[in-house]
Model the fold of this input.
Amino acid sequence: MNEPLKFGIEEEYFITDLATRQMPGQIPRAAIDRCQAALGQHFAFEMFQAQIEVASPIFTHLAQATDYLANARGALQHALRGFELGLVCAGSHPLADWRDQHATDQPHFRHLFDDYQYVAQRSVVSGLHVHVEVPAGLDRIRVMNEVLPWTPLLLALSCSSPFWQGADSGFASYRQTACDEWPRMGVPELLADQQAYEAYVAFLIARGAMRKASGCWWGVRPSASYPTLELRMTDACPRLDDALSLASLFRVMVAHAIAQPHPGAGYSEQSRWTVMENRWRAKRSGINAAFLMEGHEQPLSVEQWLRMAEQTLGATAGALGAEGVFSALRHVIREGTSAGRQRVVYQASISSGRQPRQALSQVVDHLLMETAQGPLSGRGQQHLEGRAVIER
Done:
């Protein structure tokens, strides 16, 4: 049976003062109004006034996502230009100071700041979120358990938050470290199925631990609003090509999972230990980490893990017309993730005699440029599907 595999993408952005290269605490209301007008119903507020989100329409082909997100980024940049503001798409802003940021004045965000205080105030981070539809009748938790072991690979390939509070954090994804200050982040609890998940959510809500099911902010979760699995672990990607490649691979992973006779049957307590350790290694060292694999005595490099992914998921990628995603992500490994590129810019600036603050301004300029660049023809986009179906 062939069915469209629907998906959506959410990108979070930092608004940036082009004169100071900083993330301002407050933004002129007229600038936000202009951004809203540019995106219409797909504009979304974020926790901080200088942070916004695009929540895409539903796609059935990656080419649609490419066109939409390229146009959305361009429209936002055009809307902000008249206010001497720019757009940075990255897991953290190199010059942001969380103490200077002002919360967005909406009930949802007021609740977050009331409930979580400094944890919320310090959460000046941006992610790439990908929703992939799980067909009706399938247990989303079982599908999630099938996908979970792969998710640190996606994190490693997305890392874009090495700088925090104006200094090198030592992490490839400091965003994920900041996320760990929150409850119910990172790797989900060991849950057997949808029934176990619903019991977990009901238990926490009944005891006042969280307000609603969307208070589970795991790196992968069943969406409380849509019939999807939502990837949340990945950092926001300055290069649109990288974001699209990661969205495509996650889509392939979900398609592979739902095609299994018994999704998640092999996921165990040891599997969760392995996911937790690999997430730590990914956020600490990104693509330079060595990753644990169940059934392997020796850890794997990111190249070896991606090769394993191609061997396991290649047939599904081919059915989606997305087999080129693996070569696109090998390109990411060869060139380095945004975290590595940011550090190269910073070190080159320091070597040329600039002070650390000036060097970080150069990093911001680099991120502004990459965010504005759009998809590059002939580089990593060969995986755009002509047909978006899954075989079941």
In short: The longest helix spans residues 62-81.
